[in-house]
Structures are given as C-alpha cells and as structure tokens.
Amino acid sequence: MKNRRTWIPLTVLVLAIYILHSTPHMSLRTFVFFSGYPIKAITSGIIDDRYHNEMDNKDYEKLNAKAYTLTDPPVEKQTQGVLSNYLVRKYGIIYITDYLGDT
C-alpha cells in the first residue's frame, strides 16, 4: 500500500513534466508561464527566429537547438525590456528553454 502512495504521485509528476516539455512550443510556453507571464504564455504566437537560426546555425546544430520568437512578447516590469527571443534545446525526449535575449 505504501508503494502505491509513492509511485502514483511520482508517475503523475514525471508525466506532467514530460507533457509540458514534449514539444518546443510547449516548452517555450511553460518557460514563459513560470517566468511570471502566464497570460503572454498562453496568448502569444511563436515563430522561428530566422536571424539567430541563420547566424548561429553551426552552434545550434552542436547544441541540438533552435531559436524562437514570441509575436506578442512580455515586457519585464523593472527594465521595460522586451522578452522576445528564446533558445529551445532538445535533451533526449524533452525540450528545455532558455531566454536568448533581444539581440
């Protein structure tokens, strides 16, 4: 009985993490959501960041990564910086997102 109490929540947690990071777009939306911008995570469109993908093509191939841009990005409250560009890397069967910057 104690085994079930341990395995069921653990299985649910692993499944939730997999679902939230199963595609590049889901990983990006999850990252923006947990960065404090839940509305923008849901409503903003996602497009390929052609500039970064072409300029850093060789580096991104080594990292197994691709850059994406939000069409309606969040604005950081303190600096008023636009948080539009993100780098999504593939690790095994999941995708991990990092903020890339505005340049």
Describe this structure in words.
A 4-stranded antiparallel beta sheet has the order 1-2-3-4. It has helices at 2-20, 24-34, 38-43, 50-55, 57-63, and strands at 46-48, 65-70, 85-91, 94-99. It has one domain (2-99). The protein has 103 residues and is an alpha+beta fold. It has 5 helices and 4 strands, in the order H-H-H-E-H-H-E-E-E. A hairpin with a 2-residue loop joins strand 3 and strand 4. The relative contact order is 0.18. The chain is 48% helix and 21% strand. The mean pLDDT is 91.
What attributes characterize this protein structure?
103 residues, single chain, 4 strands
The largest β sheet comes out as: 4 strands, antiparallel
- The overall pLDDT, averaged over residues, is 91
Strand fraction equals: 15-25%
Number of domains: 1
Gyration radius from CA atoms, angstroms: 16 Å
Could you give the distance between the termini?
A: 55 Å
**SSE ordering:** HHHEHHEEE
Helix content: 40-55%
Structural class: alpha+beta
Biggest sheet: strand arrangement: 1-2-3-4
Rough outline: globular
- Total beta-strand segments: 4
Q: How many H/I helical runs?
A: 5
Q: Could you list the spans in which at least 5 consecutive residues all have pLDDT below 50?
A: none
How does the SSE layout of this entry go?
Layout: H1 2-20, H2 24-34, H3 38-43, E1 46-48, H4 50-55, H5 57-63, E2 65-70, E3 85-91, E4 94-99
Antiparallel strand pairs: 1-2, 2-3, 3-4
Summarize this entry quickly:
By secondary structure, this protein is α+β, with helices and mostly antiparallel strands. The protein has helices at 2-20, 24-34, 38-43, 50-55, 57-63, and strands at residues 46-48, 65-70, 85-91, 94-99.
